[in-house]
Amino acid sequence: MYVTDDLAELLLGEAKLQQYLKENPIKLGASPHGTKPRLVEVRKHLVAALDRGNLKPEYMQEANLLLAKLNYIEGEYRDALSIYSKAALDDLQLVGIPVYRLSMIAEAYATKGLCLEKVSSLSPANSRHKDEEQEIITCYEKSGDIALLYLQEVEKVILAFVYESTCGIWK
């Protein structure tokens, strides 16, 4: 297999996952447990891209983040958390990366926070520790901070485009 085949698998998996979410938005408070037939195909694409190991590290991370998101959608919260741990979410670089990846990482932190909430809600309320609550809050804070960084970077791109467009008129 070639790297381009693995990248194609990753992109197909991502596109099909996003299309599924567009057509089937997650309802707040819904319990989505179970595999949906259309998501089986998404999983096949992502696992195929990951299993061969030909992707560059940044694309491997993206595939893992998408796989964790898929697990969340299917209600497999512990599996999603395991993948986030494997993907070393806290160690992902935020400087000098493509803008779309900032959005993906912000979403990953929000999803991780949701997973932590779901997992901790399964245990008795009095057994929830302050550390767990702080980890959930930290995930949401990081998600918000990275989302803000994403918006700032998008604004820079838009302003650069507008500047280039208007300067081109006057030349």
UniProtKB/TrEMBL annotation:
<protein>
    <submittedName>
        <fullName>TTC7B protein</fullName>
    </submittedName>
</protein>
<dbReference type="GO" id="GO:0046854">
    <property type="term" value="P:phosphatidylinositol phosphate biosynthetic process"/>
</dbReference>
<dbReference type="InterPro" id="IPR045819">
    <property type="entry name" value="TTC7_N"/>
</dbReference>
<dbReference type="InterPro" id="IPR051722">
    <property type="entry name" value="Endocytosis_PI4K-reg_protein"/>
</dbReference>
<dbReference type="GO" id="GO:0005886">
    <property type="term" value="C:plasma membrane"/>
</dbReference>
<dbReference type="Pfam" id="PF19440">
    <property type="entry name" value="TTC7_N"/>
</dbReference>
<dbReference type="GO" id="GO:0072659">
    <property type="term" value="P:protein localization to plasma membrane"/>
</dbReference>
<feature type="domain" description="Tetratricopeptide repeat protein 7 N-terminal">
    <location>
        <begin position="3"/>
        <end position="158"/>
    </location>
</feature>
